[in-house]
Amino acid sequence: MIEAAERILPGLPERISEATHRLLDQLAIEVRTGAKVNEVTAQGLTLADGSFIASELVVWAAGVKAPDVLRQLDGLEINRINQLVVEPTLQTTRDPNVFAIGDCAACPRPGTSTTVPPRAQAAHQEASHMVRQIERRLRGQPLRPYTYRDFGSLVSLGKWTTVGNLMGFLLGRGIFVEGVFAQIMYRSLRLLHERAINGTPRAVLAVLARALAHRTGPQVKLH
Fold it and tell me: What is the Cβ-side half-sphere exposure of residue 217, based on CA atoms within 13 angstroms?
Protein backbone atom coordinates (compact mmCIF):
# COMPACT_ATOMS: atom_id res chain seq x y z
CA MET A 1 0.00 0.00 0.00
CA ILE A 2 1.44 3.34 -1.09
CA GLU A 3 0.35 6.57 0.64
CA ALA A 4 1.66 10.02 -0.26
CA ALA A 5 0.74 11.48 3.14
CA GLU A 6 2.76 10.88 6.28
CA ARG A 7 0.17 8.37 7.53
CA ILE A 8 -2.70 6.36 6.11
CA LEU A 9 -6.22 7.75 6.59
CA PRO A 10 -4.85 11.28 7.06
CA GLY A 11 -8.37 12.72 7.25
CA LEU A 12 -9.22 10.69 10.35
CA PRO A 13 -7.91 10.90 13.93
CA GLU A 14 -4.33 9.69 14.36
CA ARG A 15 -5.32 6.89 16.75
CA ILE A 16 -7.55 5.31 14.07
CA SER A 17 -4.74 5.65 11.53
CA GLU A 18 -2.25 3.94 13.84
CA ALA A 19 -4.64 1.09 14.73
CA THR A 20 -5.39 0.44 11.06
CA HIS A 21 -1.69 0.52 10.19
CA ARG A 22 -0.90 -2.04 12.92
CA LEU A 23 -3.61 -4.37 11.66
CA LEU A 24 -2.33 -4.18 8.08
CA ASP A 25 1.14 -5.06 9.38
CA GLN A 26 -0.34 -8.12 11.13
CA LEU A 27 -1.94 -9.14 7.82
CA ALA A 28 1.51 -8.99 6.16
CA ILE A 29 0.55 -5.93 4.10
CA GLU A 30 3.50 -3.59 3.65
CA VAL A 31 2.53 0.06 3.99
CA ARG A 32 4.76 2.83 2.63
CA THR A 33 3.83 6.34 3.74
CA GLY A 34 5.32 9.58 2.46
CA ALA A 35 5.73 7.87 -0.90
CA LYS A 36 4.57 9.39 -4.19
CA VAL A 37 3.99 7.53 -7.44
CA ASN A 38 5.59 9.03 -10.54
CA GLU A 39 4.57 6.47 -13.12
CA VAL A 40 2.41 3.38 -13.53
CA THR A 41 3.22 0.88 -16.28
CA ALA A 42 2.17 -2.64 -17.21
CA GLN A 43 5.13 -3.95 -15.20
CA GLY A 44 4.50 -1.96 -12.01
CA LEU A 45 4.98 1.52 -10.62
CA THR A 46 7.88 3.91 -10.09
CA LEU A 47 8.06 6.06 -6.95
CA ALA A 48 9.36 9.60 -6.69
CA ASP A 49 12.53 8.36 -4.96
CA GLY A 50 13.35 6.24 -8.03
CA SER A 51 12.44 2.85 -6.55
CA PHE A 52 10.35 0.42 -8.60
CA ILE A 53 7.60 -1.92 -7.36
CA ALA A 54 6.66 -4.77 -9.68
CA SER A 55 2.92 -5.36 -9.84
CA GLU A 56 0.36 -7.13 -12.00
CA LEU A 57 -2.57 -5.14 -10.57
CA VAL A 58 -2.62 -1.52 -9.36
CA VAL A 59 -5.66 0.02 -7.64
CA TRP A 60 -5.59 3.83 -7.53
CA ALA A 61 -7.75 5.71 -4.98
CA ALA A 62 -7.61 9.43 -5.68
CA GLY A 63 -10.11 11.08 -3.38
CA VAL A 64 -13.15 13.13 -4.30
CA LYS A 65 -13.84 15.13 -7.45
CA ALA A 66 -17.27 16.41 -8.44
CA PRO A 67 -18.64 15.54 -11.93
CA ASP A 68 -17.41 17.61 -14.87
CA VAL A 69 -21.02 18.46 -15.74
CA LEU A 70 -21.00 21.00 -12.89
CA ARG A 71 -18.52 23.09 -14.89
CA GLN A 72 -21.16 23.45 -17.58
CA LEU A 73 -23.74 25.08 -15.29
CA ASP A 74 -23.54 28.63 -16.56
CA GLY A 75 -22.95 31.34 -13.97
CA LEU A 76 -22.36 29.19 -10.88
CA GLU A 77 -19.08 29.37 -8.96
CA ILE A 78 -17.02 26.18 -8.71
CA ASN A 79 -13.70 25.30 -7.07
CA ARG A 80 -10.73 23.37 -8.48
CA ILE A 81 -12.43 19.97 -8.04
CA ASN A 82 -15.69 21.05 -9.70
CA GLN A 83 -17.65 21.49 -6.45
CA LEU A 84 -20.30 24.23 -6.39
CA VAL A 85 -19.29 26.89 -3.88
CA VAL A 86 -22.15 27.46 -1.45
CA GLU A 87 -23.01 29.77 1.43
CA PRO A 88 -23.57 28.38 4.96
CA THR A 89 -27.27 28.22 4.01
CA LEU A 90 -26.31 25.70 1.25
CA GLN A 91 -27.33 28.19 -1.45
CA THR A 92 -24.86 28.65 -4.28
CA THR A 93 -22.92 31.91 -4.10
CA ARG A 94 -24.21 33.33 -7.39
CA ASP A 95 -27.81 32.08 -7.42
CA PRO A 96 -29.80 31.84 -4.16
CA ASN A 97 -32.41 29.71 -5.93
CA VAL A 98 -29.93 26.84 -6.38
CA PHE A 99 -28.97 24.63 -3.43
CA ALA A 100 -26.16 22.05 -3.36
CA ILE A 101 -25.26 19.33 -0.86
CA GLY A 102 -22.92 16.38 -0.50
CA ASP A 103 -19.79 15.77 -2.54
CA CYS A 104 -20.80 18.34 -5.18
CA ALA A 105 -20.89 21.21 -2.64
CA ALA A 106 -18.01 23.19 -1.11
CA CYS A 107 -19.61 24.36 2.13
CA PRO A 108 -17.59 26.57 4.52
CA ARG A 109 -16.93 25.59 8.14
CA PRO A 110 -17.10 28.68 10.38
CA GLY A 111 -13.92 29.27 12.33
CA THR A 112 -11.76 27.16 10.00
CA SER A 113 -10.12 27.56 6.61
CA THR A 114 -11.53 24.23 5.38
CA THR A 115 -14.85 23.15 3.92
CA VAL A 116 -17.23 20.48 5.18
CA PRO A 117 -15.59 17.08 4.47
CA PRO A 118 -17.11 14.96 1.67
CA ARG A 119 -18.41 12.24 3.94
CA ALA A 120 -21.69 10.33 4.14
CA GLN A 121 -22.65 11.83 7.50
CA ALA A 122 -22.09 15.35 6.13
CA ALA A 123 -24.33 14.70 3.11
CA HIS A 124 -26.98 13.18 5.40
CA GLN A 125 -26.92 16.21 7.69
CA GLU A 126 -26.96 18.65 4.76
CA ALA A 127 -29.95 16.91 3.16
CA SER A 128 -31.98 17.12 6.37
CA HIS A 129 -30.99 20.77 6.83
CA MET A 130 -31.76 21.70 3.21
CA VAL A 131 -35.29 20.28 3.38
CA ARG A 132 -36.06 22.51 6.35
CA GLN A 133 -34.52 25.55 4.65
CA ILE A 134 -36.56 25.11 1.47
CA GLU A 135 -39.69 24.96 3.64
CA ARG A 136 -38.62 28.18 5.39
CA ARG A 137 -37.93 29.85 2.04
CA LEU A 138 -41.37 28.92 0.72
CA ARG A 139 -42.91 30.46 3.86
CA GLY A 140 -40.88 33.65 3.38
CA GLN A 141 -38.77 33.07 6.51
CA PRO A 142 -35.02 33.79 6.74
CA LEU A 143 -32.74 30.81 6.15
CA ARG A 144 -30.50 29.38 8.86
CA PRO A 145 -26.85 28.36 8.36
CA TYR A 146 -25.82 24.74 8.36
CA THR A 147 -23.30 23.59 10.98
CA TYR A 148 -21.40 20.35 10.46
CA ARG A 149 -21.31 17.95 13.41
CA ASP A 150 -18.70 15.19 13.42
CA PHE A 151 -20.23 12.10 15.03
CA GLY A 152 -17.05 10.07 14.59
CA SER A 153 -15.52 7.68 12.08
CA LEU A 154 -15.55 3.92 11.55
CA VAL A 155 -13.11 2.00 9.35
CA SER A 156 -14.07 -1.55 8.38
CA LEU A 157 -11.38 -4.05 7.42
CA GLY A 158 -13.74 -6.81 6.38
CA LYS A 159 -13.86 -9.99 8.44
CA TRP A 160 -10.78 -9.00 10.45
CA THR A 161 -11.95 -6.04 12.51
CA THR A 162 -13.39 -2.53 12.60
CA VAL A 163 -11.87 0.46 14.36
CA GLY A 164 -13.14 3.97 14.92
CA ASN A 165 -14.05 6.78 17.27
CA LEU A 166 -17.48 7.96 18.37
CA MET A 167 -17.88 11.65 19.17
CA GLY A 168 -20.16 13.23 21.75
CA PHE A 169 -19.75 10.60 24.45
CA LEU A 170 -18.48 11.07 28.00
CA LEU A 171 -19.22 14.77 28.48
CA GLY A 172 -18.45 15.68 24.88
CA ARG A 173 -15.27 13.63 24.53
CA GLY A 174 -14.88 10.96 21.88
CA ILE A 175 -14.23 7.29 22.66
CA PHE A 176 -12.13 4.79 20.70
CA VAL A 177 -13.91 1.58 19.65
CA GLU A 178 -12.57 -1.62 18.14
CA GLY A 179 -13.55 -5.22 17.46
CA VAL A 180 -17.05 -6.67 17.72
CA PHE A 181 -18.67 -3.54 19.17
CA ALA A 182 -17.21 -1.40 16.36
CA GLN A 183 -18.39 -3.91 13.74
CA ILE A 184 -21.94 -3.75 15.13
CA MET A 185 -21.79 0.05 15.02
CA TYR A 186 -20.51 -0.02 11.42
CA ARG A 187 -23.30 -2.31 10.23
CA SER A 188 -25.89 -0.25 12.11
CA LEU A 189 -24.60 2.92 10.47
CA ARG A 190 -24.81 1.35 7.05
CA LEU A 191 -28.40 0.29 7.76
CA LEU A 192 -29.31 3.84 8.80
CA HIS A 193 -27.88 5.23 5.56
CA GLU A 194 -29.76 2.67 3.46
CA ARG A 195 -32.97 3.41 5.34
CA ALA A 196 -32.56 7.15 4.74
CA ILE A 197 -32.01 6.64 1.01
CA ASN A 198 -34.28 3.70 0.15
CA GLY A 199 -36.81 3.54 2.99
CA THR A 200 -37.28 0.93 5.71
CA PRO A 201 -38.70 -1.98 3.59
CA ARG A 202 -35.85 -1.91 1.07
CA ALA A 203 -33.26 -1.49 3.80
CA VAL A 204 -34.56 -4.61 5.58
CA LEU A 205 -34.59 -6.56 2.29
CA ALA A 206 -30.99 -5.49 1.65
CA VAL A 207 -29.96 -6.86 5.07
CA LEU A 208 -31.65 -10.19 4.32
CA ALA A 209 -30.05 -10.36 0.86
CA ARG A 210 -26.57 -9.76 2.31
CA ALA A 211 -27.16 -12.46 4.91
CA LEU A 212 -28.11 -14.99 2.22
CA ALA A 213 -25.18 -13.99 -0.01
CA HIS A 214 -22.62 -13.76 2.81
CA ARG A 215 -20.55 -16.74 1.65
CA THR A 216 -20.29 -15.54 -1.96
CA GLY A 217 -20.00 -11.78 -1.38
CA PRO A 218 -16.82 -9.71 -1.02
CA GLN A 219 -15.19 -9.53 2.41
CA VAL A 220 -14.38 -5.83 2.14
CA LYS A 221 -16.80 -3.12 0.95
CA LEU A 222 -14.95 -0.65 -1.29
CA HIS A 223 -16.47 2.83 -1.46
Answer: 13
